[in-house]
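Render this sequence as a predicted structure.
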Amino acid sequence: MAGRIPEQDIAAIRERTRIEEIVGEYVALKPGGVDSMKGLSPFKDEKTPSFHVRPQHGYFHCFSTGEGGDVFTFLMKMEHISFVEAVEQLADRIGYRINYEGGGQVVRRDRGTRSRLAQANAAAQQFYAEQFRTSEEAETARRFLRDRGFDMAQAEHFGCGYAPSGWDTMSKHLMRQGFEAKELEAAGLSKTSSRGTLIDRFHRRLLWPIRSLAGEVIGFGARKLFDDDTLGKYMNTPETLLYKKSQVLFGLDVAKRDIAAQRRAVVVEGYTDVMAMHAAGVTTAVAACGTAFGEDHLSTLRRLMLDDSSFRGEIVYTFDGDEAGKKAALKAFAGDQQFTGRTFVAVAPAGQDPCDLRQDKGDAAVRDLVSARVPMFEFAIRSMLEEYDLDHAEGRVEALRRTVPVVADIRDATLRDEYARQLAGWVGWDDPATVLRRVREEARKKGRARSRDAGPRRRGQGGPGGGGPRPMRDRVERGGRGHDDEARGYRDEPPAPPEPTGVPLPNPADPALWPQREAIKAALQYPGLAGPLFDSLPGECYTHPAYAGIADALTGAGGCAAGKSGANWVSEVSEGLADVGLRKLVGILAVETLRASEEALPRYVSGVLARLQEVWVSGQIADLKSKVQRMSPAQDPEGYSALFGDLVALEEYRRGLLEQAVGATPDMA
């Protein structure tokens, strides 16, 4: 069992890790304001970015799902790992040596954890790559790639390896490094034979390592090389804790930056097709591994391209130019409506795949294939029309019956009308207005049907604001005590259910509460600007119990004058709250943008605090006025004069505060 990770090491790793770099490996981020970046949520499909990152504060929050936290929380949710594993991964990344309490400067991980399986896959990849480079037996694998136009540099770029012929060569090699049999089986690298012995999963095959977005080896794809190999042409790592074939894409680790930069992904069908595309200069190519390209793959690419209603991405599917390729393209068309951006098809001639095309006609032909892409809708509709005899009226009528509902499925009304007009021309219908009318009628019927199927959505049934349980809500979201539990090695416990939220949460759009909300945001995000003035505000300034509770937690963490900032400051405030709803609200306020430019922030924060004081002073003035009205100057002239003097002084103080607030925030006073 690993030693406990000290809190000072956790804080140091959090402080030295740039959260935007970690998040950027999974989500394309764009500027979203002062110290704010935004992108599409990695936790659900969406068209409008609701995922925000505050780099200077080391925090993220997803407004569509409510998920939020620091860089450790993000990595835990994306990679489904424990807190300790997230800390260790980031420590390895920045070169930080953890001083385990009771363990020294040695990274000691529990057997069977995700990190351990990732280490086993990495060690296996090194073994297979060395076999590929140096062993005589691997000459068949090297020749296989040479014959397809790939040199050693290109093979090494993708980490190609070779599984030797021995039954347990790799397994014994890894066990000599300290891995256990159960770990190798859990990683999908080895299996138990009919005799009960441990044997390698792959034998005499060319291997490609399959990596996560973060670059970790999580599995392998294996290609048959010898005729006497009786298993399938291709094999893949089975489903494991790391490897989920519906979620991984081969080549994504090397293509992700260009996909984000070019806002384009090229989807091919095989490992050598990915290699051929990259060799030809199409460095955005990826491929599914052992399964069809599906919804999870599409969601991953959309997040990288930041495909939303304003910034359109582009996916190009390449298929072999035969009937099987056409069927695959039409199957991909079925999921196209989920993709906001433009979707295209590139079909190689004469049944060639990109690898064949490159061998036959060179790199330029591969680039031309992508350049000659056609829109997915056009390809699908034209493919359907090929099944009908358009030279006769009967064929044209039947073709329209088949294709009008397909065009009506297009959600974009302008694009739908344009394809309706084009459909009339492709079919040879002499009255485009008739086709357009039929498409619009069919679209209205489909829209009504979708509305009936959806029904009214009630609160608590998911979506923004929904109250359903979140499977990844874990000890980290319940504060620092969870960190201690994880650091002591209690990783296999099922996460406890979230505590009920006892404090009602405020309406963020309530204009009466905006000074309280903005003041708390300033204290969390810019404690140096809020400073002693924020700390001196009386608790009565916070009329909503949620804001009052967070203000108390800020004081308990040392206050804004304590000189703390960033993710550690936010975490310390969050850990001081017992209510899960308030901890969640802290995560929201730590990333919610303040309503001012960076240059205006000091003045804005000062104005917000003045406005909050002014509201409180106004309440005191109202109380004094009530008392003055109830007093008789004749019966108690001294008391009346004292109260009246206090009232005048407070009115003068209030005017000064109001001038400061109005000067700093003229649009909100």
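Summary. The radius of gyration is 31 Å. Residues 103-112, 456-500, 663-669 have pLDDT under 50 and may be disordered.
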